[in-house]
Structure formats: structure tokens, C-alpha cells
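pinning this so it doesn't scroll away 📌
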Amino acid sequence: MSEVPSPQLRISDQDRESALTALGEHMSVGRIDIDEFGERSAKITAAKTRGELSEVFLDLPEPHPRLDAPKTAVSEPVKPASPLAGISPAQRVMGAILPILFIASIALIVTTGVTWWFILVPIGISALGEGIWGKGWENAHKKLTKQRRRELDG
């Protein structure tokens, strides 16, 4: 069962582009001049509904714009993105190992009396990670999570 679309139905950018293309064809065959093309294209650009768009083509033969047929969209539920998406496995491993190295270094210094320079090992690994993956690599998952929340919130 097909219904005739209502003239109050809103149009898309693709519908406007189709109308401008059709209007260009009318100008290229000499049905309208450049001034009339400018006036009508301004109306097409400002049009919001099918009715406003069809008014531009009332006195013109085919071609007319091809308008999208109304669709009943069945959207699938949005799956939340993994907070680890976009983070390489090497970054994940380094991000997990780095806090353990800091704790192990401090524990080793306190329990065995190893000199303080041993704490430079996790600091050096952290600097290496920053050099390879850029500044803030260990917090990349937090930034990605915040970005995805903003995208989902609109």
C-alpha cells in the first residue's frame, strides 16, 4: 500500500541537491535564465517541505527533483562502545604494567634498601611510552570514554 507523501513532509539535503540539479538542467536547455535560476535556487535552498520545493517546479516540465520516499526506519539499539576501543594492545599492556612497576619499585626500595634510583625504571618506561604513543598515552582510554559519552549525549 503506497501513500502519496504529504506536502508538509520535511525534505533532506539530498532532496535539495536533486532539485538544484534538475533546475540546472532547465537552465542549460534555456527554459530559465541565470537570474531566474538564482531566484529559484535560493528558494530551493530555503525550502523545508516538499510543498515549498514543488512550488519551484510548477511551471516547468520534467525533470523534477527525485525526492526520497518516506521511510519507516527501524533503528537498532545503539551498542555502547568499548572504553578500550582505539587503544592498541601494546598500549593496554603498558598501561597495566606501569602502575605495578611503580608499586614494585617502591616496595623494593623500602624492603631491601635498594637506592632511590631504582624508581627511575618505571619513570623511564613511562617516558618511553610517551615518546612512542604521544603525551598522555596512559590516559587515552579516559579521553576516548569522555568523547564517546559526548557523542552519545548529542
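📌 and the second one:
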Amino acid sequence: MNLTKGLEQAVCIITLLATQDKKFPIASHIINQRLEGASPSYVKKIIRKLVVNGLVTSVSGSNGGFLLAKKPEDVNLLEVVEALEGPIVTYPNTGMINQVFSDMGPTANQGEKVLTEVFRQADEQYTNLLRQQTVAHLIYESLGRREIPVINWNEVIES
């Protein structure tokens, strides 16, 4: 499974929203500016996926924009990954093992089951690790302190 660059952009968007002053939604053009080089239409698609999956709230109106739908402590990386990429399934199991080793009878079928189970367990460990990593924890680790700064990104002047 290859994660797309959209996931990195989604993590940046979620982090912006996690640090945003909750009184002021972040305007979409501000998010586009901060994700310099990203296509505005692609950013809209990412935000839409985050909204549909309940991670981000869209606020309409002249002072509208986007807010994090949950507390940063309640958003984990698994939710972000699955919002962008769908459920984690790393082994495609196209039935090729049974095809290639069809003359081996039940052994081929058992081999397919064994390999599928190994990857299922790996996916489970991977998803459990991502589930444990909250946005708040990642911000704490990045900043080296147990608080999330409150910023109004709509007013931050770029230097």
C-alpha cells in the first residue's frame, strides 16, 4: 500500500485546524496559501473527504471556513488515513497463489490462507498503532510541550 501525498496534506490541514482559534474558522484560501504548490481543487477534495468522514466541519458565510470537528485528543492518525485512503488492506489477494499452484490442490489454498492471515495481522498491528497516535500527541511531541498553541491562521502574516 502506498499512501498518497494527499495524506501528508491532510495531516497539515488537520494540524492547522487543531491549532486554530475555535472562534474563527480557517478560510479555504488560507489553507491553499499554506499548502503552497498544492492544487486548490485537490485541496478541496481532501477537505471534502475530511468533512464527509466527520473530522472537519464546514462553516458557511462571509466569515466561514473550516474547523476541526473534534478535539485534537479525539482525532487519531488512523481516522485521517482512512478518510483519505480508505481502509488499510495491504495484501491484494487476487487468487494468484491458487492459480499458479493449482496442481498442488489443497496446499495452494492453504498457502493463500496463511499468507492472507499474516497480512491481516500486520494490517491490524499497523491500524492499532495509527489509532493510538492522536493529533494532540503528535503536536505535543513536535513542540516538546503538552499544550497546543492557539493561532488564528487567518491573521498570520507571512514573512
